[in-house]
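Please check this:
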Amino acid sequence: MISVDEALERIFGKLPDLGSESVPLGRAHRRVLASPLVATHNQPPFDSSAMDGYAVRASEATPDRALKMAGTAQAGARFVGMMEHGQCVRIFTGAPLPIGADAVIMQEEATAEGNRIRFEKQPTVGQNIRKQGFDFERGKELLPAGTALTPAMLSLAAAANLPNVTVSRRPRIAIMATGDELVPPGTPLGNDQIVASNSYGLIPMLSAFAEKVVDLGIVPDDKAKLDAAMLSAFDMGVDILVTTGGASVGERDLVQDVLKDLGVTLDFWKLSMRPGKPLMFGTRGKTLIFGLPGNPVSALVTATVILRPALRALLGHTDPFWPRFGVPTLGALPPNGSRRHYLRASLSRNDIGYLQVRPILETDSAHGSSLAAADALIVQRENDPGQPPGEIVEVIPLNWG
């Protein structure tokens, strides 16, 4: 049995290089940059006005003098020619600054007398002007590789005149549930049958990181059927195979033997964590295989703690473990043993708006309703003596993507 940290280190060391691809901005939301985003031009590409008003020579726009309005400059239609001495130009936000102007006075500080314009106070040189390259300059790295693209970042890429971005390829994932006792939701339950639920939580979790997730359904505890299902996944060329159930060492836990027969090299199959001790990891060529426990809470917690960081690292995220943070606990944590404990918990805000977390003390690995009520996991380290209320504890938020 190995620690969570060692397991992740081993997994990270075996992640394949999936390469990269160019995708249009419209399909790049949440994709991870495989190479830096570099500006191809200056933004703005010219000196421009930061507001509606009048473009002037700062030295001439004194309160005791009226300037003659020579024309108008607006976005997409600049003032043509040079602004002469004694003149000003009506200008609108984003419009190119006329030649000869070195300041913009907002319209609220001007009074028009026909085509003669007076100003309340003399401006300073550069006032209300966005200089060429103010936002970014050509050749500047705007975003580093490993950045997951947000809406604001996609807007930035568009402003940099980039119709496409180079992002990491996403893995193709196959998932299957194993067990003679499992039946699909909606099935009238017979004696000794259980409704299969794991895949319905895992598929949306994994889909955020995958090109495609193939659901192989429920496979009974039969070596020939398990062999056929797993072989079909490998024949599809999936990058990751995820199984749930059958990963332990009982007589009916056949997944490990079938994987070995199919040429899978197992790296580990027990983790020092709870819930989720019987977690298996191996490789077959460049394909990664994760055998998650069958209990619903164990399956989703191990996917959160192990599989999600592995997928983020595979995609090149700069921080595979994001998001994690420390917040005060509203309840005491009991002493912990030698296995790292991931306690179900709920986040809330206190009276001044700061986050706090309340532990859910239900620990049964099949108690799905308590996990559904949780929106966080509290990380309790090995041999922790327990923590009183108010202590800062490490939290993994759930459902944040």
